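Consider the tokenized backbone below.
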């Protein structure tokens, strides 16, 4: 079985990364996309460093990297940070820009206009590098009262999809694949708009949670050739490990739920989601 974890923060694993990767390999996880956001632009390179450190090791999955400035750090997307991102984007092992996007959930996050400006600037880097983007989108709907007061009626999904229409439609990006909506948590209607733009939908451990009925409807609805699985490790551990530190080996639980929703076997969902990942990132199948 070949499982692919399309989104893991390996640089945020507290200790024992080699052991975490060995467990992933033993569980059938053969490919991981390590997300290069760190704690801000100063650490964007860490995912690439990890991918290079473990490259070719028999006790580790194949690791690829991304680089980007998370919306929580959008106020730090200055000229120097964007220049660093462009340098990282040129590296062969960096296969995507992200995670980037909008987050109206935390009151401490930068104001919405700052987030939108940082997002557009990074999309322009992606166009220049000819690489897909990895999208983070979190609304203020379930946020604290303070965050709701700060962001008001602003709708992160509407803002995001409008920005994508304006800056990342096929006429803007040409032949560049759109990318991934990571840890997808939107509605079927939002999923359809993203699919129409060419995006893949990646499902994380929250797919297994009891209150995620709407998300499971999206996972069953999405076209077979546009679905992926991820851990978002060390966050969002799936049931039966909810509340624990997540790691790539646990992606098998999300895969099992997705397989059941779609009426196929675990082995089939592993092969399907890996083939989708390799289609989006052709160099990973070599």
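A designed sequence for it:
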């Amino acid at each position: 079985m070949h499982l692919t974890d399309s989104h893991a923060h390996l640089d945020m694993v507290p200790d024992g990364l080699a052991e975490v990767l060995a467990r992933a390999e033993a569980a059938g996880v053969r490919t991981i996309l390590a997300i290069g956001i760190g704690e801000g632009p100063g650490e964007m390179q860490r995912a690439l460093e990890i991918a290079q450190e473990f490259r070719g090791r028999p006790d580790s999955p194949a690791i690829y990297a991304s680089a980007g400035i998370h919306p929580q750090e959008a106020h730090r997307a200055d000229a120097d940070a964007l220049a660093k991102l462009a340098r990282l984007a040129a590296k062969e092992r960096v296969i995507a820009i992200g995670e980037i996007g909008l987050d109206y959930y935390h009151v401490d996050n930068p104001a919405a206009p700052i987030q939108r400006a940082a997002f557009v600037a990074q999309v322009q880097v992606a166009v220049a590098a000819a690489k897909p983007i990895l999208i983070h989108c979190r609304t203020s709907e379930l946020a604290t009262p303070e965050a709701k007061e700060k962001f008001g009626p602003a709708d992160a999904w509407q803002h995001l999809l409008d920005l994508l229409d304006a800056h990342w439609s096929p006429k803007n990006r040409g032949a560049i694949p759109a990318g991934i909506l990571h840890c997808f948590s939107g509605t079927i209607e939002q999923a359809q708009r993203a699919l129409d733009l060419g995006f893949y939908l990646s499902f994380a451990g929250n797919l297994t949670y009891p209150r995620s009925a709407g998300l499971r409807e999206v996972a069953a609805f999405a076209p077979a050739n546009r679905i992926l699985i991820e851990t978002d490790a060390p966050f969002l551990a799936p049931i039966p490990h909810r509340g624990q530190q997540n790691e790539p080996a646990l992606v098998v639980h999300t895969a099992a739920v997705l397989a059941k929703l779609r009426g196929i076997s675990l082995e089939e969902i592993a092969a399907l989601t890996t083939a989708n990942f390799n289609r989006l990132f052709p160099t990973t199948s070599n």
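The first helix runs from residue 17 to 26.
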